[in-house]
Records
---
Amino acid sequence: MKRTLENIENQFETFQILNEEGEIVNEDAVPELSDDDLKEIMRRMVYTRILDQRSIALNRQGRLGFYAPTAGQEASQLGSQYALEQADYILPGYRDVPQLIWQGLPLYKAFLFSKGHYVGNQMPDGLNAVSPQIIIGAQITQAAGVGIGFKKRGEEAVAITYTGDGGASQGDFYEGVNFAGALGGQNIFVVQNNQFAISVPVEKQSAAQTIAQKAVAAGIEGIQVDGMDVLAVYAVTKDARERAINGEGPTLIETLTYRYGPHTMAGDDPTRYRTEDMNDEWEKKDPIVRFRKYLESKDLWNEDEENKVIEKAKEEIKAAIKEADNTPKQKVTDLMDIMYEELPQSLKEQREEYAEKESK
Amino acid sequence: MAQMTMIQAITEAMRTELGNDENVLVFGEDVGHNGGVFRATEGLQDEFGEERVFDTPLAESGINGMAIGLALTGFRPVPEIQFFGFVFETMDAISGQMARYRFRTGGTKSMPITIRSPFGGGVHTPELHADSLEGLMAQQPGLKVVIPSNPYDAKGLLIQSIRDNDPVIFLEHMKLYRSFREEVPEEEYTVELGKANVKREGSDVTLVAYGAMVHSALKAAEQLEEDGVSAEVIDLRTVSPVDYETILESVKKTNRAVMIQEAQKQAGIASSVAAEIQEKAILHLEAPVMRVTAPDTVYPFTQAEGVWLPDHTSIIEKVESVMNF
């Protein structure tokens, strides 16, 4: 009897281009990116880190609602997003607001989403995306549908969806990757393995050594990548996108990453399940520190550049939160109006009742 | 005009809309080459090709999640859930996701999906094949729940459901699939959603039913006529949203009402309609609004279903107690 598990697991290595010192360790794999591209990626990561710090502060002041911190995951989120084209479709999880922003969601709308205002869920023209999913993994089967739809229409576009290590345990994860494989979806499934599903460590999610190897059972490509290395994440996503569009099937990408903050701002205390040592170890891998070293070695980045980005981010965040605050409050009648295309007979009467309450 | 069974009328409706709109897709378990376990999709793959009528992997959540994604790319999906008892596998995709999409996207994205599914008792199926679970669906805002009682309505309602821009749960009572034929126009026509149908006019009591129970109500009405009781029979056709106007108009005329459903008594369509009548027309009533339902147990597949399921005799008994109140 031939045993195969060990052979399969041994084939999943972590793909890396930049090491922790910001040195190229995989020369052949360095993606073709102009100096402007490299600076733009850095700019986005720095901006997003500031946005995270400001969002946490705004949440603590009671000026934002639901917020899932992003610091630590910038390379996973923005490296993959940078590989997309505007025609592509994003189906994010609840932590994946930065990808939406850099694909075209105005900042004030991201804040409105956080505050639970439906205007935050209205994507602007030209942004193919749905708002972040709250149910873990529910977006994965939907992403398969979008990818299969693109294939049916012969469109040069992919559907990319994001979940976490916990999400890869859901039935919808397995169903989604399997449907995309079986029906030829133009899909990229990104699992940001940030080591913990709230408090449960990834070792308790599965006996599988990697999440990437779950692709094997679905008959699709799987790759594990250093999720703190923005060049590596960009390169594997770009490659996955090209293969999907060329009819070579979907790809599952596992990014190894870490969230520095709590699960969400709703009372999670990471000191209950993570040690300082562990935090320190991951902070040494920081995606921004590493990429800064790389860019500095190429004379593409300096403190001045960075400060300019930080100031710009702070200004724009201030303006956006003001705009969000100035958006008219959402009413119950607004919700009634968007339950159906046309208000049913039975809801009309209830609408009148609430319209009267709201007029007082 | 042709004589058709309800299942033929359902196939006809899908054929019509596949022909009318290239965005319509029909898919599910065994719906392709095999034409569905009840043959509802017989011949459709041959006629419209595998890109538009296709088999999926066996996973209900995946089927409806995929339907959502296809709707996001402009398609008009008509997925089949092979038996409605399997809906528990896909409750999130339906109630947690597609029903909320219009709301969740701030009114910018619609989900023109019609989930077809066989349901209903009396045909000796294994467990979780016969349950009446329309109440679960009716509780979810954002969905429409349609249940035809005859071939003519089935065709017109299904065409209208497929054209509707909100998600529709289209439930087909298995006992009605081939139990009788009637005249069904070959040309296309629609039956409005959310509109009940007065199947029989009467002056003493209003019987409100849907699906297979419409036929039990009509049978009861015939027998009651012989005893001098004139029963009006209303076929809801859409159980969410309910056409309360038609019901209230009837009750104000007859002053008595009996709600009939094959589902268990607790928390169903019959209860909410009864409550609405009492809120809106209490002074018109000569007797309490009564309900004829199955008991509050799980569905007793095969063995005891004959006793468990309500029928025309249980309707007649309830009408008598309303008349003699």
---
Amino acid sequence: MSTKKVTIKAFRFNAETDYLPYYKNYEMEVGEDELILDLLNRVKWEHDGSFSYRRSCRHGICGACGIKVNGKAVLACKQNALALVELFGDELVFEPQSKKRAVKDMIIDKGDFWKKHADVLPFVESHVDAHPTSESKMSPAQLFNVLDADYCIQCGACHYSCPVIEINEDFFGPAAFAAAYRFSVDPRDNSSELRLEMTAKMGQGVWDCVKCFECVEACPKEVNPLEKITKLHNMQFEQKIAQRNVATKHAEGFVRSIKKHGLLDEADIVKYSEGQIGVLKHMGDAIKMMKAGKIHLVDQIPFVDNMPKSKNLDEIKKLIAISQTNKL
Amino acid sequence: MSQLRYALYTGCTARESTPELLSSTLAVASKLGIELVLLDEASCCGASHLQDFDEFLALVLNARNICYAEKLGLTMVTLCNTCQINTAMTKERLDKDHALRARVNMKLAEVGLEYRGTSEIKHFLYALVDDYGVEAIASKVEKPLSHFNIAPFYGCHNIRPSHLQHHSNGGENPYAPNSLDRLIEALEGKSVDYASKNKCCGFHVDLQAPETSNRLTGNALVDAIDNGADMVVTPCPLCHLNMDIKQESAGKMLGRDIDIPILHLPQMVALALGCTPKEVGLKYHVTKAKHLI
């Protein structure tokens, strides 16, 4: 069997004794069947018994062994090591999912993840008769609507790949949103309204998602959290939970603009979303843009419309008229 | 090489706040002999915000845009990462889900159109790098960018999610993309290696969460500057807008002076192919590219 010489550069840190983290290199011959978990074991068993990481099921289902290798979130027990050498070269950098939450080496304090996950009520909330006379059935179509969201194993790969989680501690994050979606579309559940209200709230909810697709890329179970985030957005409008605010008006304002021009009127969407007073905080940027020729002055005068228009605009108008399903 | 022909979906930004993106794209195409047929019928892609409001409507409008590329029998080329992902995601969903395609086509039939799934969707960056070829571009360089350290900023919607993007981005590694780096080197510039090159600029929460947006943009720009960049180049006009306009507010938030020009991908290529700063529209930048003018 062929092997390859690999250098593992491992993040080392002990919150109890170390002032700063450091990296330590371990060289080893890696075989084509070895997983990242095998390499973690070999660092511990062959080099340094104090090296620490979480592992349990070895079958990609407990979610304990999530780490990052060269910035890519992986489940150590599912990820072939040489496949990563192929992707990144023969130096593999092992890091915990979140360096700022490191406790010891690969082990992090996942408390924020669990709290947010629990906050969205990740279970079916239902008043069940203690002595039911029939089963509560779910149709195939209703099950399909869950969109694989119940494959989530709470490993934290998406949560700690999310750039918003890094800088906004109120933000629920992709895993909690996927769970909120999964239980809100369950026909047996009674708490969907509560979850939609929670995830609609500015600062913590779906409107603070930057749509970077890091969560989709990171998920080892192909849950696609961003797809569920988009569904939660739509459900806010469908179920009349969306409040009129800058974010919802911005989303809805696209229809207004496309109806009129085919294209998005970039200046108008800011005015419309922010309102007459809110828009004033953008004056600084607007003046800079005007000076650079990015906004033409006539745009700022009402009733002067110099927007470029899509050809066959009547088609676009008609398609909006017959396809639009949501309202704000 | 037979002549490359594409249907060009400009998106809104290239027709409004970044006219320099469209003019420099056309300049590059004319220098390299690539034929671009403008899709003047196309509407806005929804920028992922219309998708948040009304997913189905967004699918219908994007399918209509693709129909016009199909009518021409051409691959659709995009200039904006967000147009790219919204169009490509529409295509992926309609190609996979035939019931959904039928629902969308029922609407399109009302205006005499039908989505068939015959056109590919590709960003201009990959038309240059993969179809035209980095070496072929290198052979056309008239004004090498030899003195410049250029930081590539890829933008999310061209590299993630890889299962979707790999159809059109040459298998770019989302954790270590290199197409822009290779292009910079082909133009004889020095590509700057820095950790933020595949990160998010925060554009999509500009209105509702300006702090998040400023911090993400600021972090990336400071990272580029600290690694010696003279300028940043990006294939996405939304990244461009955020990074070009928000330097003062992002700098204030991070406690750093940020002053670094942000070039559109085709501006950089056009300059190396011999176009003048005027031709590529550098005057439209808020943060002036002083060392290029």
